[in-house]
Amino acid sequence: MEMIACDDDQCTVVWWHYSCAGVCADTIPDTWVCSRCLPGTTEEIDSSPGPDPTVSRPPRSRKTRQKPKKTSETTDAVTTDAQPSAKKDKKARKPPKPAVKRPEAKFCEADALQKADHYFMSGLQQLQQHPICLGVYPTAVCMLSLVASLMAKTNTEALQDFCAATVSGLWFVITAGDSKYLKPEGYEILWRAFHKYRPEVNDKWIELLQAMGLYREGQHVHLVCQFLLQAVLHAIIEDRNKQDKPIDNPAETKSESLSPQEEQVLRYVSGYIPFSLFKNLNKQKNDTAMTYCKFLKSWKVDCSDETARTFLQYTNDWIDKQNRGGLFRVSDGVYLLFRAMEQETCKYLTKNNLKTFQGCDIQSTLLNNIKGSHRVQTYWCSLTQGKITGDTSTNLLNMTVKKWIKIRAKAFINVYLNLKKATHGNVGKKAEKALRKDL
C-alpha cells in the first residue's frame, strides 16, 4: 500500500495515502508534514475550536422560532468560561520532540567489502542450522547439498567476486534511507530498495552456479539465495550499527551486604508491591486477573499467625512500630525474593554507571539481569509451586519485576539529586526532568 508518514510526532493521523498527500513514489521529500500539522493550520484550528461561544443558539421550539437576544451578561459569562479551557489547551499542547538523526557514519563500504567472504560463510553456516534444513523432505536435502558444495568452493574466484559484488550492491540498499531520521520511514525505504535489488541478484546467482558447475534448477536454489541475501544484509547492518553507535552497557559491580535499616525498608517495599498489584488487578473482571489476585493475597500474613521467631524477625522491627493494622505484611519467602532482586539491582544502579545510562535502556537491562538471576528464579519457583505455572507465572513475574524497577530507579534518582544539591548547589528543573527521562 502506497502511504507516507507525517514527520510531526504530535500528528494524530500519521499515515497518509499518496493521493491525499499529493506526492508519488518518485517525489517523496526528505521530511514531510501533513496539512493538519503545519504551523499555520495548527494556529487556525486552535484559535477556532468550534462555533463561536458568544452566539447562543435559537430555542428549539415547534411553535415559534425567535432569534435570541444578545446580552452583555451572557457574553461575558461564556467568555469567562472559555478562558480557562483555552489556557488548559496551551498547557496541554507540547512542542514536538525533535527527530533523532543518524549518528556520524564510521563504518564504510570498504569495511563491509573486507568481510564479504565472512558474511557469506556465516550465512551458509546459519542455513545449515536452520530448522527448514533439518527436515528429511527432498527440498531440505537439496538445500543442504547445495550449501555443502558452496562451502567446499569458497576459495574460487567466481564465488569471491559474487560475494564482493553482492555486498557492494547491498551497501546502496542499506544507505538508501540515511537521509531520513531514525524513524520507521527510513527502514521502509531500505526494504523497498532491498526487494528491488533481489531480482538482479537472482540472475547473478544462477550465473554463479552455472560457472561453478552446480545444479541451478529447482526450488531449493532460490531458497538458498533468498536466505543468504537476507543473512548478509542483517550482518552488515549489525556491524554498521555497532561501529557507528556502540552500546555502552552498565558495568556490573560487586554488591555490598545490606544494613539492618535497609533490610527493614526493603521489607516494607516487599509488602507494598503485591498490595499495589492486587489493587490494580482487582479492578479487572477476567479469570487471569482473579487468579493473580488470589495468588497475591496468599502472600499476606497476619501477625497473629507467626507463632515462632525466625532469623529474619529483625526485618519486621520498623514495620511493627509503624503498622496500625493497614500494612500488607508478607512472609519470609516473599521478602527473600525481593532481597535477591535488590542484590541484583545494586550491581548496576551505582554512581559510576551514571555516564553509561544516557541512551541506555536501563529498565530492559535490569529486567533481563533480575529475571536471569538463579536466586530470583529459585525463590519465585518456591512461591509459585503448585499455584500458577507457564505463561501465567512468567507474566506475573514480569509485572512484579517492572514494578520493583520503577520504585528502585526512582529512589536512586532522588538520592543522586539530593547528593548533588548538597555538594554542587541546586539542580534546575530541566536537568531533573532530563535525568528522570534518561533513566
For this entry, give a set of tags.
439 residues; mainly alpha; two-stranded antiparallel ribbon; 60% helix
How do you describe this structure in short?
With 439 residues, the protein is mainly alpha-helical.
Please explain how this structure is put together.
InterPro entries: Znf_FYVE_PHD (IPR011011), Znf_RING/FYVE/PHD (IPR013083). The chain has 439 residues and is mostly helical. The protein is 60% helix and 1% strand. The protein is built from 18 helices and 2 strands. It has a two-stranded antiparallel ribbon. α5 crosses α7 and α5 crosses α9. The longest helix has 35 residues. The C terminus is likely disordered.
What is the β-strand count? 2
Mean pLDDT reading? 77
- Strands in their spatial order, largest beta sheet: 1-2
Helix and strand string, N-terminal first? EEHHHHHHHHHHHHHHHHHH
Overall 3D shape:
extended
Through-space gap between termini: 38 Å
Based on CA atoms alone, the radius of gyration comes out at: 32 Å
User: What composes the largest sheet?
Assistant: 2 strands, antiparallel
What fraction of the residues are assigned to beta strands by DSSP?
under 5%
Q: Given the helix and strand composition, which structural class is it? A: mainly alpha
Can you give the helix content as a percent range?
55-70%
Q: Tally the helices: what do you get? A: 18
Identify low-pLDDT runs: 42-65, 70-82, 435-439
